[in-house]
Amino acid sequence: MTSTLDRIAPRDIAAEVPARLSLTPKTTLAGQLDGAWWPHSRDLEAELPPLVAALQEPWGRITRVTVNPARWPVVPRRVAVDGRVLHVGWFAEQDADKLILLAYAVGRWDLLVIPPETDPVAAARLMAAAAIPGSVLTAGVLMANEAVIGRGIRDARRREATWESEGGACMSPFGNPMGRNALPPPTKGWR
Predict the structure, then answer these.
(1) By the 8 A CB rule, do 9 and 17 touch?
(2) Average of per-residue pLDDT values in the chain
């Protein structure tokens, strides 16, 4: 018996689904980041048009984007967006988890880039943290903090699973589970 799987190309997904963004509210508090972006894939040519379209209203016409090539398998020099050209540059010195957007004579915005394979709960935490006005946390620090939080959650789940698989058994001082037959026999006066 054979089965056929429909594979949807990253470009098809990006074209149909709006950009997943979380932006800082407009305040006078300047922070390290202006929000977060959670792309659907690592294909910049497919992911940048929906991102730029989503930012057109709040930020104006984005003309240039810079990335660190460590997170993107291919970095195109130009990307077509709504009949115009978006220039893409890369800098190895730039934080690998950050995307910089530039608008001609308007300004610069820095976004945390959440890896596409990130768990939705972790992505939600990162998007919320990156959108805090006036935050001094950089993209690298946020990603490192999330790695620690994720590791703590995985460890807690593993300990709970171990507890459950042992039937919630008590442990001996030597680290071995103790069953009911390991307890001393009941005597008069001891319950």
Answers:
(1) no
(2) 83
